[in-house]
Amino acid sequence: MESHLFYLSSNPRPELERAEGIHMWAKTGKRYLDGSSGAMVSNIGHSNPAVLAAMRAQMEKSTFGYRLHFMTEPSERLAAKTAALCPGDLNKVFFVSGGSEAVESTLKLARQYAVAKGEAQRFKVISRTPSYHGSTLGALAVTGYAPLAAPFAPMMHEMPKIPAPRAYLDGLDLEDPATGEHYAAMLEAKIVEEGAQTVLAFIQEPVGGASTGALVPPKGYMEAVREICDKYGVLLIHDEVMSGGGRTGKFWGADHWGAVPDIISISKGFGGGYVPLGAMIARDDMVQTVMDAGGFMHGHTYAGNPLACSAGLAVLDEIERLGLVENAALMGDKLQARLRGLMNRFSFIGDVRGKGLLTAFELVSDRGTMEPLPRELNAFDRLVEHAYAQGLIIYSRRTRGGTSGDHFLVCPPMIIGDEGLDELMEMLEAALVSFA
Ligand code: PLP
């Protein structure tokens, strides 16, 4: 049948019939293990009965009540629960329907806050390369992934970028505090170069997502970045769209370092694949300042609808009830140990990295130099195809700013147990053997 969609993969994909737990079934009957939780979304697994029941119950009452006309119990309760999970005095929640919307909201709130404080000259948002913050024009302007932004360059204000702290590529020791200082110094230098009084914010993914392949910052980096932001009056935005919600083995990725930003974005696992849902959470004094100055000039129609919030609430309840943050930490350690074990067998695995179940491995032609595999090898697509053939879904991206290099995210739902992990590793090994 001819498809009228134009966002499908260029490779033929099976038609999805149903999904449950960590598995998905195609119409052909073939079973797949969802080894990337979709795009790191289905964190609590598919078809969770408690979430479905909560959604059904809400649907019987109301599915939509516009936020300027009604307050709703699910949105109030989800906001309170989310705020309680946040560090510092970040306790004001603004709902959206996805990650790009969440990031877009952080940029606009930061800007309006600066204007309200009489610092209208601050507008530049520094970010890292590579990074991915979303596909809308504002979020794309702070995304460090050149091929995605190139066609739209004339339509965006180019934002300053600094290198992501990729110690493994630069031959630096992740555990050496000098490495953290080295990369954080790049932020300070960029702020000074741009003119500190013009810099509004710095945005980063605490544990990297698809663009860096689960990049973990070096020792001392997160602390140094916070200090530098404070020194120059620059707001710190943590994009936790992928790392938030427990996948890294702590609720927020930044919790691994006790780092407290000024604004957070979250999505993906927040709606858990049940509904499109995201949020921005900000310090209450910032929100108050913006509200006192006339209100936040931003919003999306579907934001905070009761159906989405009832699902989000049930997702958070299930994460708590099933101890999924702790399970992500435990199973993430096991997964990473087993992926490292594969490095003995497959010399083309150059690096294994991540926190909890936000985990990736990178393929290289030379582990010593970290030289990527030749592009003609098309590892990016080929390994995914071999995994598909086995019945395993993994997520691939180019690693060097989107231009070359291949990494693969192995991020199964946080409900995975030992049996699921055995199944995943067996299929991944078989895929690597066919690829080799
Ligand atoms: N920020 C990060 C860190 C992401 O990983 C993503 C999506 O991959 C986004 C923002 C954009 O989210 P969405 O695709 O829901 O718009």
UniProtKB/TrEMBL annotation:
PANTHER family: AMINOTRANSFERASE, AMINOTRANSFERASE CLASS-III
Organism field: Rhodalgimonas zhirmunskyi
InterPro entries xrefs: Aminotrans_3, Aminotrans_3_PPA_site, PyrdxlP-dep_Trfase, PyrdxlP-dep_Trfase_major, PyrdxlP-dep_Trfase_small
Family, per entry: Belongs to the class-III pyridoxal-phosphate-dependent aminotransferase family.
Cofactor names: pyridoxal 5'-phosphate
Keywords: Aminotransferase, Pyridoxal phosphate, Transferase
Name of the protein: Aspartate aminotransferase family protein
GO molecular function: pyridoxal phosphate binding; transaminase activity
